[in-house]
Sequence to fold (628 residues):
Amino acid sequence: MAVSTSNEPKAFSEISIEKIVEELQEKCEIEKHLPGGGFLHMSDELPYLVIYRNEDEDIEKGEDRATVRLILSEASFLIIGNKDFEGYQRLMFCLSEAMSSKFKSFLIIEVYAGAPESRKFKIKGPAEKLSTTIKVLQEELDDVDSGYRALKLGSTEVQDTLERQPEGKKPLLNLEQLKASGCLLLGIEVPPVYRSKEGEDYPVFFRSFKDDFVVALHKTIFQFIRIQTSSGVKSYRALGQKNLQNKVKEIDRQLAQIETSYQFLWLVSPANIRQIKDTFFESNYEKVLNYHYRLIPFDPDVLKRRLYNLKLEEIDDPALSYIFREKREELDLQISMLSDRGSDNFFYNSMMLFGKISNDLQHEAETILKEVPEKEDHAFESIMKAEDFKVLANREFDYFREQDENFSSKVHIRDDVNILMVSRGELYLPSDYKLNANETKALIQHEIGTHVLTYYNGNQQPLKLLSIGLTDYDTLQEGLAVLSEYLVGGLTGNRMRTLAGRVVAASARMHGADFKEIFRLLNKDYNFKPQRAFNITSRIMQGGGFTKDISYLKGLVQLKKHLEEGGELAPLLTGKFALEHMPIISELNERRVLSPVKLTPRYLHTEETRKKLSQIREGIPLAKLINA
Fold:
């Protein structure tokens, strides 16, 4: 973070300090460059301030460049520059006085590194007068210590002292000023175990250490706020920054741009699937043509270089750093897979990308196939074509526009599309598309009520990745989509069998089965009709082994467990993410980084849905989640 600028003031004046306090009260959140490379980022809604003293001309190149990063993700922090220390003291006093008047009390925490040989945290403050807050801090820092046993860190030391600053430095505020301003001051001396004795940082270790330290700090601050102030903060997770930094927005934009520069599923699917199918059936299930794939419209080396040129190491917000790093690894795997289509490497990377099949998932799939019989597909009198389905889709789009007039997705009927699909919030239909009318309600909610809706909701958020998709978002997306089919009365036995069949097919591929062996397994052992067995097999064998299709049943299993444990459904429609990301989504909501959800699906407000969700929460078996 560059905190110095040619526009920074050379010194404080009483007027400039008054203006800072007034601006904070008016705007609620401010950022200010201050004398000597100082910087203030502060929220008027949070009664605390974390302090770091900058001794270097260039904070990013100085000897202590890592320690300052321990505080940069705070919603309220002050970096004291190397000029006009007395002015900084006046600023801190005025800020403390103003915030104490608003919240009854105010907390200042100074963070600094100990001596190079130090191996334990030290807390300096009024241990007896504020025993609860300091005890929480001690326990949390001890937890940080316990996570790094190999370093042999000592127990956190508490010093009941007025000397809470680094050794040899002036105090931030003296006792009289603290009392007059209604402020509590704590000092935290951090053992600099994240760098060598020669001053070289260990970046990978530091990232983990920093994230743990930030959580410990936030839990302590929340304890103080809850007991000592009138602030309405409801959780320690609300203490991160509300507004995204420019470098966060830029990396989010770049990651989204890289993902949208190619269509992964389109490039994985074979261009000659109809010829493969015709030949396979005409040869009595013996001859399998080679898969032919579309040309890759980019240079994988160039795209990977672009991916790893992103400076994710500069992101200090633990939640955002985590999801960005996850996403980079996922995109790296996808790009490698596209380069390796038709090879074993594609299949191995697919297993890394979509995960293994757990024993529980395998058992659920086999139970469904055992208990749910395959039904004959009857000829229906009411057949719906692409233009008919477009009318129903547009009706659903109108329902969304009633909730948000800015909604603008469209339906595209095209000759060059062979399956119904949603891409970037738009619905695409093959021109020769046909389906029976009984399927329409389920299909509308699967594609539009889930995939289109979550794309739009995610697109209204400051993070573009919430519309493109965080890592492994497919699992929850498809789980939600299948659940919506059940909630609107359209989840059939054959559909559930197909989802289970995809799992056993993927499992067979993981155990070395080829195309014909998987087809026979489905057709002979699990009684799938040849057409359905081919569809499942051909999808699993894309690229050499594409295990994405386990996501449907895997997502439904995860979602069912989430609901059984008391989880809510509506928050999962905020955008495209995995169920494991819900704590991060909740944190970003508490920090008010995210906006309220714009759209909710039609089915979410019905009595039928409420009854069915109650049944799921009570533990109805998956094999019973069938409407017909």
Observations:
- DSSP finds 22 helices and 13 strands in the chain.
